[in-house]
């Protein structure tokens, strides 16, 4: 499930372009505009700190279904929320981490992976095949909670990010 969420985040990111200044990446429901400042997100969030985040990052958490996800709508993101689809993140390593964590949370919702493919995956033959025959609902049991238990920013450029996450779950109230 986590790998699928990370794959969707990777598919939603623009392809790398060597030597170019940071560009605004389109969200799932918006297109990039020429008026966005360099490094600024498509919804106007600032480029932010380009250092890799570390353990102990102060953040506000909220539930997306039964998964805890980070949120900072005026800073790191998500800058746009449409139901369970959260898009538009700061162009920074921390913004990429927030995007991965929110995709992780959304993937645990009923039909979450289908929601992510519909909303965030690039138009492609793979996306079309998945949506034509989505797998059976693989969401978590309704008594299970999940959150990011650990992360590592493997690599980050203004055009591409690879984020590793480890999920932590509690099943049916067992702690």
Features:
disordered N terminus, globular, four-stranded mixed beta sheet, two-stranded antiparallel ribbon, single chain, 6 strands, alpha+beta, about 180 residues, 4 helices
Description:
The protein has helices spanning 2-12, 93-107, 112-120, 125-132, and strands spanning 60-64, 67-71, 80-82, 85-87, 145-157, 160-170. The radius of gyration is 16 Å and the shape is globular. The chain has four helices and six strands. The protein has 175 residues and is of the alpha+beta class.
Helix-strand layout with pairing:
Layout: H1 2-12, E1 60-64, E2 67-71, E3 80-82, E4 85-87, H2 93-107, H3 112-120, H4 125-132, E5 145-157, E6 160-170
Helix pairs in contact: 1-2, 1-3, 2-3
- Approximate helicity band: 10-25%
Radius of gyration, whole Å:
16 Å
Q: Order of strands across the biggest sheet?
A: 1-2-5-6
- Which residues sit in consecutive blocks of at least 5 with pLDDT less than 50? 1-36
Global mean pLDDT = 76
How far apart the termini lie comes to 22 Å
């Amino acid at each position: 499930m986590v790998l699928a969420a990370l794959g969707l985040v990777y598919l939603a990111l623009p392809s790398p372009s060597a030597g170019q200044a940071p560009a605004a990446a389109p969200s799932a429901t918006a297109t990039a505009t020429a008026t966005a400042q360099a490094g600024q997100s498509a919804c106007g969030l600032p480029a932010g700190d380009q250092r890799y985040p570390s353990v102990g990052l102060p953040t506000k958490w909220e539930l997306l279904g039964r998964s805890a996800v980070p949120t900072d709508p005026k800073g790191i993101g998500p800058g746009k929320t449409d139901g369970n689809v959260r898009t538009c993140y700061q162009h920074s390593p921390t913004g990429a981490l927030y995007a991965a964590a929110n995709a992780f949370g959304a993937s645990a919702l009923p039909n979450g992976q289908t929601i992510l493919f519909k909303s965030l995956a690039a138009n492609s033959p793979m996306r079309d095949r998945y949506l034509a025959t989505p797998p059976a609902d693989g969401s978590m049991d309704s008594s299970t909670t999940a959150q990011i238990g650990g992360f590592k920013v493997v690599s980050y450029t203004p055009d591409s990010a690879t984020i590793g996450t480890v999920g932590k779950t509690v099943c049916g109230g067992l702690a």
